[in-house]
Amino acid sequence: MALVKMKDILAKAERDNYGVGAFSVANMEMVMGAIKAAEELQSPLILQIAEVRLNHSPLHMIGPLMVAAAKEANVPVAVHFDHGMTLEKIKQTLEIGFSSVMYDGSHHSLEENIQKTKEVVELAKQYGATVEAEIGRVGGSEDGSEDIEMLLTSTEEAKRFAEETNIDALAIAIGNAHGMYKGDPNLRLNRLHEINEQVDIPLVLHGGSGISAEDFKACIQKGIRKINVATATFNNIVHAVNKSVETAPYADYFALHQDSIHAVYENVKHHMQIFGSCNRVQSKEKFFHTT
Hints:
Radius of gyration: 18 Å
Strand order of the largest sheet: 1-2-3-4-5-6-7-8
Helix content: 40-55%
Structural class: alpha/beta
Strand content: 5-15%
Distance between the termini: 13 Å
Order of helices and strands: HEHEHEHEHEHEHEHEHH
């Protein structure tokens, strides 16, 4: 299947009413674990990295790795740049071969967010890439460094934004937050339903770590197609490594390497089973491969 457009992955999810996991990665082991789970479950996969993570995982190193891994996978894989903040960095990811980009202008006024997002859409067209954007503000920050207050997405503004920008996917704020939730998430499913009725493109749920299986399924039934998972995967690696060294230190690097891959594989597999994306890949189905 190889590297494909995220737009096509989400279109199939919309037709068949399931969710697709977008899993943040930071190194080779995380990429390997995510693809291993997707291939075993025959599930489409979105690999992503956010701009704020590039201090730890430089784009010129992690980007080509992600694209190369997607091209070799036997399931459809989209490579996505999450929470892009600058046109310069978004263009760099497109040059590397990312098949999808997100511009996050949610901190701007609606008018400025629309204008800047339209610029990204025009740029992405030159590469045949999918564009995601955000309206409202998801709580917290992608790297956990800020305690950003959530701003619920307005149904009317979501409709206007989608129509004027011509984006392919829209991230909305319905009580979700980045990082792990301090209490139980209070998702506004009524607002999600209202937005889904008015907006004719796939909807995206950021802040997937810590949401219950029941809430995930309810969101998918009401129109969520892409679900971002980051913190849960990072935490699963840390937990696995800490558990291993409780009894004895690692004897060699490659044992640590394999445990890291397996921890990612377990978390990705767990979420894919909840999202309903397993066994959705058919050998005869046609996705638009990127060049």
